[in-house]
Amino acid sequence: MSENTKKVQIGGIAVGGGESVKIQSMCTAKTSDVSAACRQIEELEAAGCEIIRVSVLDEADAAAVKTIKQKIHIPLVADIHFSARLAVAAIEAGCDKVRINPGNIGGEREIKLVADCIKAHKIAVRVGSNTGSIEREFLEKYGKNEFSLVESALKSVSSLEKYGVGDIVISVKASSVPLTVRAYRLLASRTQYPLHIGVTEAGPEQMAVVKSSAALGALLLDGIGDTMRVSITDDPVKEIAAARRILRAVGLDREYVDVVSCPTCGRCMWDSMALAQKTAAYVENLRKPLKIAVMGCVVNGPGEAKDCDLGIAGAQDFCVIFKNGEIIRKVPSADAEREFFKEIDFLTNER
User: Fold this and answer.
1) Span 257-350 CATH architecture
2) What is the DSSP string of 149-186?
3) Fold for domain 8-249?
4) pTM, two decimal places
């Protein structure tokens, strides 16, 4: 997202250098189970995933990269640890990017072997650190904090730069929201490489979304982050929906229907909560820059939602439908949902 970061090509997608923030996820299926992996990747693609990562744990996984790559439509990242041989095999099989940790890939010979292969195939590489992989020297010097995370990540960068690798993406992840934010802010001040942002080990869906929204939202509002992942211990398709909503909330995705609604109070005499939820579901996948309001009462509703393209507010027996704060129709409460959705359809088709 930041115009100050270097632009790096990952397959057919550019990241960094002012490009839009790309949504990433990781396949949970075994990579060598090509049918299962491709089926899951297709679901993620349909949900809006723009870059997908797969684990390469053995020779069968590395070999499967070639077939998977032929069947999908988004860039494929191979995640390899502890084996330079598997990293080379995955690159030669056609992955668009590798995720490695030079600190555990082997000695200098192995690092050079992987670096030369990365250069020969003109692909990108992601390196970085998390709180479980900080280099011992920095852990002893700084403790487990943003300084050790960043220094450890930059050491990995240097180990590839000295062999001529330049298309690098960096990450510094923690499960702590404050530490994640501090680490990325520090890293952004120390490098111009594009950054992959995320909270690691964020947990099951509800807390993972809260943690990721807090950390990634803060970073994106600072202009930090070129690719992102919302890590959720659940179906990875949920990661994509959460990432899209974060981008919308911080203003980086405007091609959607923004549904605003009041929390209601004692003045509310109709089930506006139910209609708000139905409306959000109804427009979820529409790529239209619109703002729609579902308000609890006619006392304040039209005025409070004056900046909305379309809105509805209710009383006990009737609802009013309004555009730009001006009431255009009064309908019986029993007909409110049907008539309101007609107006939504008309407005979205018009746009």
Assistant:
1) 2-Layer Sandwich (3.30)
2) HHHHHHHHHHHHHTTT---EEEEEE-SSHHHHHHHHHH
3) TIM Barrel (3.20.20)
4) 0.90
